[in-house]
Amino acid sequence: MEQDNQQIRHIKNDRLETIKQDYRGNKTINGRFANGDELYNPPLSKVLRWQLTPNPQREQKKHDDYTPPVKKDSAFIGSDLDMVVWLGHASFLIRLGGVTFLTDPVLYDLPMIKRRVSLPCEPEALRNIDFLLLSHAHRDHLDKKSVQTIFQNNPQVKALAPLRAGRILRSINKHLPYQEAGWFQKFDLVPEQVEVYYMPARHWHRRGPFDMNKILWGSFVLKTPNLTLYFAGDTAIGPHFEEIEELFGPMDVCIMPVGAYKPAFLMHRSHMDPHEAVKAYNLLRGGTFIPMHYGTFDLSDEPPGEPVRLLEQIAAGGMLQGLKFPAIGEPILL
To answer: Which residues contact 332 (CB under 8 A, 6 or more apart)?
Structure first.
């Protein structure tokens, strides 16, 4: 026991390699994961303030009908080319070195929140997937029905997940194989032509009334001899971007969240706005910038097209090189 009767532990998967020297593992306080060193519990008072405060952009949002374009095509599924294909929100099909990954699969409507755009193909058409990359367990990133569909049609798939996410995966299907990692840990994979690392993020966890911060959150780095790709998951701006760049060097591809940032008094400690996402990308010395976490679900107060307009303005000002705005279903070749 330490001060204030808090039980402090540092945990990691002892079977995996930890790439940060002298890193003891993720800090937990009374069984709940810290956001680095400190607990972050989004205060109910701020949630209530959000619900009771009129959105100053209400009219602008009401008249903003932007939705991401969708390319109705499933040809990318059978391709053997290295590529990134956006499926909406934070879901991407990524193929590197002949290995196919699917990030944060949410292929259907969320509870009480409908998709604003469709998939490029039916969910059942997503085949030949080797690994699910699960950044964290919020319902707009880890959806039970979506994981069930993928596993049903991809019996070879394995899930790469954060610490203590296994209980959710077992509840989805007890036969789904998975591996848990803490920050700065390298997953133990076969085949080995792509290295996958679980890295920090500034976020939090909750799926039910009694599980606040009981499951870890994070980001991913995928590395081959020729390319390094960063998938940010959900995160606020923070010092972890510099840590990641120090360990891996420049990122050839950065998949960055740019939506769900208003009202700032509620969102700024868990999400990034476009300006912050570009700052993080520059700290990573990024190459291609692919935005995500906008346009698919209505989760916050900003108008749906605002992230796109801001990123275009930032790019026009010379602060963002390599910006790509793929349609949903449009492959970006690597």
So the answer is: 83, 84, 85, 288, 290, 324, 326
Question: Based on the structure, what is the number of domains in the chain?
Answer: 1
Q: CA–CA separation, 214 vs 206, rounded Å?
A: 8
pLDDT band at 314 (very low <50, low <70, confident <90, very high): very high
Measured distance CA(194)–CA(328) in Å, rounded:
25
| Opening angle at CA 191, ends 141 and 11, nearest 5 | 55
CA–CA dist 186, 221 (Å, integer):
9
CATH code, domain carrying 120 = 3.60.15.10
Confidence of residue 4 (pLDDT cuts 50, 70, 90): low
User: In the beta sheet, which residues pair with residue 10?
Assistant: 27
pLDDT tens sequence across 265-279: 889 899 999 999 999
Q: CB pairs under 8 A, 24+ apart, for 224-229?
A: 224/96, 224/97, 224/193, 224/194, 224/195, 227/82, 227/96, 227/252, 227/253, 227/334, 228/252, 228/253, 229/84, 229/94, 229/96, 229/253, 229/254, 229/255, 229/334
Q: Can you give the residue range of the structural domain that contains 99?
A: 3-333
